[in-house]
Amino acid sequence: MVLTAVRGGLGFLTRLPGGDGEAEWDSFRRSPVAFPLVGYIVGGLAAVPFVLPVPVPTAAALYLVTLYLVTGVTHADGLADLGDAAVVHGDAERRLSVLKDSQTGVGGLLALGLTLVVLGLGALGLAGLGGRLAFTPAVAIAVAAEVGAKTGMATLVCLGEPAHEGLGSALVGENGQSGLFAVAVACLPVAALALLAGGLGVIAALVCGPVVALALRSWGRTKLGGVSGDLLGATNELARAAAIHVGVVAWTLF
Prior knowledge:
Layout lengths: L1 H12 L8 H8 L4 H13 L9 H16 L2 H13 L5 H8 L6 H22 L9 H23 L7 H6 L6 H8 L2 H9 L3 H23 L5 H25 L1
Helix pairs in contact: 1-2, 1-3, 3-4, 3-8, 4-7, 5-6, 5-7, 5-13, 7-13, 8-10, 8-11, 8-12, 8-13, 11-12, 12-13
């Protein structure tokens, strides 16, 4: 069942060939543990440039390119929609109507642009952490950040309430707090990455995802009336960008 859920997660969270069928989707939306498991795959692929014998700026650029080739722009689009909703004056109903608007406004452009700049600068910091052609802290932090971002999404799925009927409610409405135990177990291999990388930055990057998710859950309950699909996507993008910086800073200092 877990493998079926992971295939469904690949179909939903990435552009990789996975499971686009009804059985895979149904298994995925009932199995939050698939989120961090997919995170290992995405993070591992995105981290490949950090072990190539290329200049630091090139490795950072290749990381960004690989990341969005693997994941697509669905989550980034959710971040842009949430940025538009965040700057709207009005009640939750007004903000939800903005989320459903296909046009991107200034708030969305600013949110997406700033996040990409922050992520790019973080990638530059990652690329400068270690040598090439070996397992480096950059690889460990990149993987941990992606697992943490997906764990943040799983946290919302397990603890959130649907803001409205839609794709988000198909995930949030099917899970409860009990699903977080399996999610936590799936994150344990990150501890091994921390031992290999020799620093607390890896753990810090992992924890950052759920922390960002809880903050956005609080905002969503107040401003949107719950968790929407766009909020899930925005959590992924914001948590990853924050986790990269937190991981680099923690590894550097400790």
